[in-house]
Amino acid sequence: MNMMTGNTTVATNGYAISSWIDNAAVMTDLQTLLKLPPRGIAKNNMPKVLDYFETKCQTSKAWADRAAQIIPGGVQHNLAFNHPFPIAAAKVDGPYMWDADGNRYIDFLQAGGPTLLGSNYLPLREKAKALIDECGPVTGLLHEYEFKLAEIIRHHMPGIEMFRMLGSGTEACMGAIRLARAHTGMKWVIKVGGDYHGWSDQMVYGMRVPGTGRREATGIPKGATAYTQEVFPNELGSLRRTLMLNRLRGGTAAVIVEPLGPESGTRPVTPDYNCEVRKLCHEFGALLIFDEVVTGFRVGMGGAQGYFNVQPDLTVFGKCLTGGYLMAGGIGGRKEIMMTLAGGIGTSSKRAFVGGTLSANPLSCVAGYWAIEEMARTNAPVLAGKAGDRLTKGLKEIISRLDLPYVVYNMGSIVHLQTSAVLLMSMRNPIKLMREANARKHVMEEMGAAYMAHGLLTLAGSRIYTSMADTDEIVDDALNRFESVFKLV
Q1: Pick from 435, 409, 403, 404: which is nearest to 422 by CA?
Q2: Is 196 a catalytic residue?
Q3: Where are the domains of the chain?
Q4: Are strands 228-231 and 188-192 parallel, antiparallel or unpaired?
Q5: I need a labelling partner for 462 at 20 to 30 A (CA). Which of 145, 162, 309, 484 fits?
Q6: Fold (CATH) for 2-120+380-486
């Protein structure tokens, strides 16, 4: 079944997103939240929250102290940061995670999104173990599941004729941009401010906060971002003007977008946005790149491109490919473009060079093939989306009943819970950004700590990923825990 939204047709049958959000209403609510003083955990209640970590998480604290002595900042991935210190995971299973002290949490982090089937999914684990027993994780030679994985991706993703496996989402974005430049002969690349496309030199630009340009580009020469540009979210007029200017300066190689909006829909796109970007790219001869690192398969087996009925020229994947297993990334797209990535030694034809001796290793490819096969067999995207709908509906009711200004909405199994609105700030109001960003960020961190102290693991206290493992019973349990936290505000 398809649903008309304005002039755009979006798919609903077989996709996690039952209906698209009312963008205008959500953005109005978010801007209202941003205008209000932040309301977090009451000062007299915060000691109760912190006491949980001091008394119940002593092993995690000791390990975090030990890590801080040898690891810069004590953490090696941003997902691991939690206030007041990182929690050490010891076991995961389906909807749950247990820390090193034996405390159990409802796992709404889900490794940052890739474990749509639920953590440590048994049928997938058995396939991975069999591969290790028979072949080992790496060989350096062609393995059967390399082409099987490419075939199953092509079967489900409408915009993909050929696929090349890489090691991460960052590598995939690097390769896609290089490929776009090689194919078009143009240099300029336009991204949406606030989008995250990995940490390569050219993409550490306008990250998380629109309008910040090179603010986070410490250690990166200016030349590396000389041909990277950003436009503000949802502003098609600004994109058109930038494309017109670039046409006078040699042309635009690619426009790269997160199809739900920056940071997986933290600033949600309007329903027709991707379709209109597609038209602009066609008009100006630029390639359209969809970053489906999170949305691939989580939105539906056809990804965001299937849901919005928009075919990008290139698609980049990351952790979504393998159901949580390692070395997950890749580029897919039209054959005429993808052939510029042809590998081999000493080729004389024009090519965009990418490498990686661990790319397409047997373990990653087996995990990827069977993860996608299981997602399709179990209808995991839709089941996870229904859990996201149920959780969102319940959170809205609690927030309304307690008269809190918080904003919650979801795109299927990606649930956004905004309590401080720090993620809605931009350089269009730099004074407010400088004055309030740290305080609002700390409110968000304290909310995340309170969730964890009540057995809820989230992404930075502001994003929730549901999985197929989240039954009605688990969602209802989570809602009771969220309500306990909100009563501490």
Answers
A1: 435
A2: yes
A3: 2-120+380-486, 122-377
A4: parallel
A5: 309
A6: Aspartate Aminotransferase, domain 1 (3.90.1150)
